[in-house]
Amino acid sequence: MSANRSAQQSTLSSFLEVARTSQFAWFIGHVVVLFSSALYLLTFRGGSSGFHNTLYRVMYLGVIESFSVIIDQQHLRSTNKTSPRDLLLDDNVLYLGVALLWIATPRLTITMVPYVVFSLFHFLTYLKSVLLPQVFHLSENSKILTLVDSFVRQNNDKSMNWSSFSELCCLIIVLLRALLWYPRSWIVAIIYSVFIKVRYEKSPYMKSCVKKWEVRLDGLVSHPKVFPQVKNIYMQFKSNIRQLGKYNLAGPSPATSAAKQN
């Protein structure tokens, strides 16, 4: 009994020590995201309800809290000064800004997907790196740590691809809603299109996803049964997108800058 009580006290003491950190506050934000989104999906029956609207907003409150903590750590409390432009183009700031957009506009379920994916992997990483070894004192060779580590390693790239795919699907829906004049749809379409443009410039996963979509659409449009008018519209659309691609919002990549200097 004495040994068990001592172990419990040690675990509690370790947990309280971890719970005082800002990283734990960041972790709690991801827990809120996962819990509220799981409850949202498990009880979803279609349509709109006050309960699901509340869960949706709570999920985004968790997102805002977790991203705010990391931005505070990386920029506001850092001794290294960040220029306003670099701050605005930081991935965490971008995703925080989009989360504020979603929480302030009518509910759109698909927007939850990338945040849930991010939170799942952040949750597992924190579990593996902090909670299990520091609070529950599991060794590096324990089966639980090995399984979690293996899952994260094997699925990290897949998770980024899933996120990029869901973001592109969301863009299509947002643009369609704008064309149908949903409430506040045009401001959402403009802001989210800029977000996707910056993500395309910065993320190899987004570029890969866009390329896959382009190849798939090229194959569909090139089919002999597709009307020539449709093919012309598609080619004009691609031409316009390429013209927009010349305007780089995120600035030149490091490789491009180095090439210019050489």
Characterize the largest beta sheet: strand count, sense, and whether it forms a barrel.
none
**What's the end-to-end separation, in Å?**
71 Å
Oligomer: single chain
**Low-confidence spans: pLDDT under 50, at least 5 residues?**
253-262
Report the sheet-strand fraction: under 5%
Q: Give the count of helical stretches.
A: 11
Order of helices and strands: HHHHHHHHHHH
Mean pLDDT: 86
Q: Give me the count of strands.
A: 0
- SS content category: mainly alpha
- Summed up, the domain count is 1
Instruction: State the shape.
Output: elongated
- Give the radius of gyration: 22 Å
Pfam families: TMEM33_Pom33
GO cellular component, one term: endoplasmic reticulum
Main location: membrane
Subcellular location: Membrane
Structural overview:
- With 262 residues, this protein is an all-alpha fold.
- It has one domain (2-261).
- The protein contains eleven helices and no strands.
- It has helices at 2-19, 22-42, 50-76, 84-88, 91-103, 112-135, 143-179, 185-202, 204-221, 228-245, 254-261.
- Mean pLDDT is 86; it is low at 253-262.
Topology:
Elements: H1 2-19, H2 22-42, H3 50-76, H4 84-88, H5 91-103, H6 112-135, H7 143-179, H8 185-202, H9 204-221, H10 228-245, H11 254-261
Helix pairs in contact: 1-6, 2-3, 2-6, 3-5, 5-8, 6-7, 7-8, 7-9, 8-9
Features:
mainly alpha, 262 residues, 11 helices
Task: Describe the structure in brief.
With 262 residues, this protein is an all-alpha fold. The chain has 11 helices and no strands.
